[in-house]
Design brief:
Length: about 260
């Protein structure tokens, strides 16, 4: 029997980078009785890819891969921290790591976390978007990312390997981890225009620090096709995996219909 006063249905741990301001913003929009969200931050030691590249002489792709390596090292204590809550499910508020190396890389990444959390339920960006797309029954997609080209390549690889025809990957090529949250609404709309087409059945937005929760539901009505922000996908997946089937209106078809 669940005796928790405030979280009778689910206590969902959320692992996020220290530089991220997008995930908690999106979570705060959704108020569900009996569900609590418990964020655990891990330190980002290399947050400015442009400055790092200028200092070391490395290209942006090399710096970004170094950034991801450091993130993986610092995740372990943050997971250990949030597990003490105790949580009933773990949601990862990052996405690049979950797509890295395609299907094989995703399995390896999730396997390492599984070693730490055991049988606890887990939601990742790659896994959540895959299940979300399956529900919509689409096969031709485009993806918007805040990553440099190497990140875009890994996103394309992942979705291609799981059976989707990737029409466009629109990379915003942000210069730092915090710059992702500084992308303007006009810049997002311009990216959507580039990603869209008559042969595109759905559009995915990666990068949890780029919140499109307020924008994409309106664009869904305009384009008449599913628009899936990574944060909405992970929130939806974490809720459904926790047995929370509430349909939430105003934040896109995924939360409203499935």
């Amino acid at each position: 029997m669940n005796n928790y006063q405030l979280a009778k249905r689910a206590r969902i741990g959320v692992l996020i980078p220290s530089t991220n301001t997008g995930v908690e913003y999106d979570l705060q929009k959704l108020g569900l009785d009996g569900v609590t969200w418990h964020c655990s931050r891990f330190l980002i030691r290399l947050k400015d890819w442009a400055k790092e590249g200028a200092a070391t002489g490395d290209d942006e792709n090399t710096v970004f891969e170094r950034f991801l390596d450091l993130m993986r090292e610092d995740m372990t204590p943050a997971i250990e921290n949030v597990l003490t809550s105790p949580i009933t499910h773990l949601m990862l508020g990052m996405s690049a790591e979950t797509f890295w190396g395609g299907m094989e890389g995703n399995v390896e990444f999730e396997g390492k976390i599984r070693e730490q959390i055991g049988d606890l339920g887990m939601t990742t960006g790659a896994g959540a978007t895959r299940v979300a797309l399956d529900n919509f029954g689409v096969k031709k997609i485009s993806v918007i990312t805040p990553y440099p080209p190497v990140g875009d390549d890994n996103v394309r690889q992942f979705f291609s390997e799981i059976g989707y025809e990737v029409k466009h990957v629109v990379g915003l090529n942000c210069e730092s981890a915090t710059a992702i949250a500084e992308v303007t609404i006009p810049e997002v709309i311009e990216a959507v225009k580039k990603a869209d087409g008559d042969d595109v059945e759905a559009i995915i937005q990666c990068g949890p620090n780029l919140s499109t929760l307020d924008l994409f539901p309106t664009l869904e009505h305009w384009l008449e096709k599913p628009m899936i922000p990574i944060n909405v996908a992970t929130i939806w997946h974490a809720l459904r995996a926790s047995g929370i089937d509430d349909k939430i209106t105003g934040y896109g078809r995924l939360l409203e219909e499935f």
